[in-house]
């Protein structure tokens, strides 16, 4: 080995065969390379490429997405999060979505196409856009750190499109007529004051759930937003914990609007009545403080509690609409489904409709950016038409 047919040395691992072809051979950690070419220089280039690829692949760490995510989350992400409940919530969000589809794939074999396919699949099986977006943000952050640790050459989370199929449901807002109808049907329910409070404050559901009686200042007629309640379910067990609000701007003071004081005093009497009736069976855990909004048994009023009750109200409205349509022999006017978060959108929209200063609305909503506040507003066709008519002619 090492010589051509004339006996000239051409390099270790090379030789020229009797048929004139040059041959290159090597064994790298048990793996054999054997290639041929009539051109010695081309052979050497090909040989060096194959040798480098083989060495690189043998030195590479074989790690799956599941392996890397678990390691990254434990060492990098988890320490940044507020509590065990938040950590479990974040981890579950990722393991139930992208890790369930791509978790067993080798990290450096995951392509942009794989991630787009997984994203499409999540939308198709019923995950809303918000959930997919949050899980995708985790995946992108996780893979960015994989790049920095030389586990992959580039982050494949580029150009991913998330379907907007559920965008309307997430951005639902009540018109004035719908708002009045919903409250009319909710009037005899235990949660009537809760719905009115959401409509006159625009607080997030986590902020509502965490609100303490010492956050209510009846003397100065304002509400201090200082906490949020995180609720999550893991293996069928419910975890709840008071945490700080969503962001720095979420710490804010909301003045009493309209009926706010009356709403709170009626609710306080209602809550005290429930406490006196069940006494030692009052369920409110001491670590959650003196909550303003509790169920009849003392548990925090959360998104899950309100969503179930709101669905019943909507069903009742639609049932009556169907009966009315049959009696009047006309088409029913269905009441679209509504989530607790829709009341926050509704509050922002009402504020804009009443000409409130946009920067004041931003502060009341607890948003860092005005663009976020404006995205919460939904000015309906009738309102836009009225505004256009006020302007008159441009020319």
What does this structure look like?
- It is a single chain.
- This protein has 395 residues and is mainly alpha-helical.
- 50% of the residues lie in helices and 10% in strands.
- It contains 16 helices and eight strands.
- The chain is elongated and about 105 Å long.
- It starts with 13 loop residues before the first strand and ends with a helix.
- The mean pLDDT is 87.
Return Rg in Å. 31 Å
Instruction: Determine the N-to-C terminus distance.
Output: 91 Å
Question: Residue-averaged pLDDT, rounded?
Answer: 87
Order of helices and strands: EEEHHHHHHHHHHEEEEEHHHHHH
What's the arrangement of secondary structure elements?
Blueprint: E1 14-16, E2 22-28, E3 31-37, H1 40-59, H2 65-77, H3 84-95, H4 98-102, H5 112-124, H6 129-148, H7 167-170, H8 176-186, H9 192-201, H10 205-210, E4 216-217, E5 222-225, E6 228-234, E7 237-243, E8 252-255, H11 260-278, H12 303-328, H13 342-353, H14 358-365, H15 370-375, H16 381-391
Antiparallel strand pairs: 1-2, 2-3, 4-5, 5-8, 6-7
């Amino acid at each position: 080995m090492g010589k051509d047919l004339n006996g000239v040395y051409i390099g270790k691992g090379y030789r020229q065969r009797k048929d004139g072809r040059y041959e290159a051979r090597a064994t790298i950690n048990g793996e054999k390379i054997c290639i041929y070419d009539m051109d010695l220089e081309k052979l050497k280039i090909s040989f060096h490429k194959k040798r480098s690829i083989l060495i690189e692949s043998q030195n590479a760490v074989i790690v799956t997405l599941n392996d890397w995510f678990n390691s990254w989350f434990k060492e990098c992400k988890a320490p940044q999060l507020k509590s065990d409940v938040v950590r479990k919530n974040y981890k579950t969000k990722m393991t139930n979505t992208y890790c369930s589809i791509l978790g067993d794939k080798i990290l450096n074999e995951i392509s942009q196409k794989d991630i787009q396919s997984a994203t499409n699949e999540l939308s198709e099986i019923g995950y809303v856009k918000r959930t997919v977006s949050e899980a995708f943000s985790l995946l992108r952050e996780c893979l960015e750190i994989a790049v920095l640790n030389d586990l992959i050459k580039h982050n494949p989370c580029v150009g991913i499109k998330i379907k907007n199929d559920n965008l309307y449901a997430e951005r639902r807002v009540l018109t004035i007529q719908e708002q009045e109808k919903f409250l009319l049907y909710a009037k005899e329910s235990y949660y009537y004051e809760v719905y009115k409070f959401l409509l006159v404050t625009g607080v997030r559901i986590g902020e509502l759930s965490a609100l303490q009686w010492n956050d209510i200042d009846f003397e100065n007629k304002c509400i201090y937003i200082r906490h949020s309640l995180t609720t999550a379910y893991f293996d069928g067990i419910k975890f709840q914990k008071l945490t700080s609000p969503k962001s720095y701007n979420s710490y804010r003071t909301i003045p009493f609007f309209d009926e706010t004081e009356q709403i709170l005093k009626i609710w306080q009497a209602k809550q005290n009545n429930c406490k006196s009736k069940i006494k030692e069976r009052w369920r409110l855990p001491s670590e959650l403080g003196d909550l303003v909004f509790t169920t009849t048994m003392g548990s925090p009023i959360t998104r899950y509690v309100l969503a179930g009750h709101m669905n019943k109200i909507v069903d009742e409205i639609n049932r009556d609409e169907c009966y009315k349509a049959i009696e009047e022999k006309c088409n029913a006017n269905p009441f679209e489904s509504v989530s607790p978060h829709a009341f926050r959108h509704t509050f922002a929209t009402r504020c804009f409709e009443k000409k409130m200063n946009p920067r004041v609305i931003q502060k009341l909503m607890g948003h860092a950016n005005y663009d976020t506040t404006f995205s919460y507003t939904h000015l309906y066709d009738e309102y836009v038409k009225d505004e256009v008519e006020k302007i008159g002619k441009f020319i």
